[in-house]
TrEMBL record:
Residues 59-224 form the Fungal lipase-type domain. The lineage of its organism: Bacteria, Pseudomonadati, Pseudomonadota, Gammaproteobacteria, Vibrionales. It holds the Pfam family Lipase_3. This is Lipase. It comes from the Bacteria.
Length: 282
């Protein structure tokens, strides 16, 4: 597994934070003016942003929970059976259902950045397959990605909270018929997306990075020990350091200890040293 470089981490973290505002200037982050597609949910809200430019990388950014309904989806953790190559495995029904919801977008829009031949052929194929019915979130995403993959671009998936779980599931699904197209998956504050058999058959573990921050309770969800399992490499940001592949129970123990001792740690001299810039302004 190649290490996740600092500039890559910062880039994906910024893009995840910018998934929430209704608008932002994506060209400031190296993407083309026309290299952006918004994927909407059943209420017409933007839930996924697909960004691309001159580089061979396409970044798919998944937004986390935005409403009470979205938060309730976290509680729908009964199993959904899906295919993983020649095997079957089980994932979180709620997160899977987000990808299967119908969108208010009823057509496949051609991308202005792709050749007319690729656009025409793919749009016709999609329209024939869906018989003019509303597209699901996954169908919207795939309708944009496949022509880009045909141009030789590779896909990075990133997301925050439940968006991270969606990123895992979409990457896994795309891998089934485009195994070389997935570049990496980077998630932030992500709950677990699948059961043990999903972890066992997940083919992208060496391309997946899961970022956790201190005692982020969402990263311990769903709250059923040994039923749901995370995939990929965990990078835990704690007390100014980055820990790799810290076991979940040990991470929880250290977080609780840190929280209990926090009032005492504010007395440490390094807390005063880090605020020295305040005095430079006076």
């Amino acid at each position: 597994m190649k290490p996740l470089k600092r500039y890559q981490y910062e880039r994906y973290a910024i893009l995840c934070s910018l998934a929430y505002p209704p608008t932002f200037n994506h060209t400031l982050y190296g993407f083309d003016k026309n290299g952006r597609h918004e994927v909407t949910d059943r209420w017409g809200r933007s839930i996924v942003r697909i960004l691309w430019g001159e580089r061979n990388e396409v970044v798919v950014v998944f937004k986390g929970s935005q409403s009470i309904w979205d938060w309730l989806i976290n509680l729908a953790f009964f199993p959904k059976k899906i295919r993983a190559g020649d095997q079957f495995c089980h994932v979180h029904w709620g997160y899977y259902s987000l990808l299967e919801q119908s969108s208010k977008t009823n057509t496949v829009k051609p991308s202005p950045h792709l050749s007319d031949a690729i656009n025409t052929e793919f749009v016709q194929a999609c329209e024939q397959n869906i018989n003019q019915t509303a597209l699901t979130l996954y169908q919207q995403i795939e309708s944009v990605l496949l022509p880009l993959i045909a141009q030789g671009k590779r896909i990075t998936f990133t997301g925050h909270s439940s968006g991270g779980a969606m990123a895992i599931l979409v990457a896994h699904r795309l891998y089934q018929h485009q195994p070389t197209a997935v570049k990496r998956i980077v998630t932030f504050g992500q709950p677990a997306a699948g059961f043990w058999n999903f972890k066992k058959h997940y083919p992208l573990a060496k391309r997946t990075y899961r970022i956790c921050c201190d005692l982020d309770i969402v990263t311990f969800l769903p709250p059923i020990p040994f039923m749901f399992w995370h995939v990929g490499k965990v990078l835990w940001l704690h007390n100014g350091k980055i820990y790799e592949d810290t076991p979940t129970l040990w991470r929880l123990y250290l977080s609780i200890i840190s929280w209990v001792l926090r009032p005492i740690t504010y007395h440490y001299m390094n807390k005063y040293i880090r605020n020295k810039d305040f005095f430079d302004k006076h």
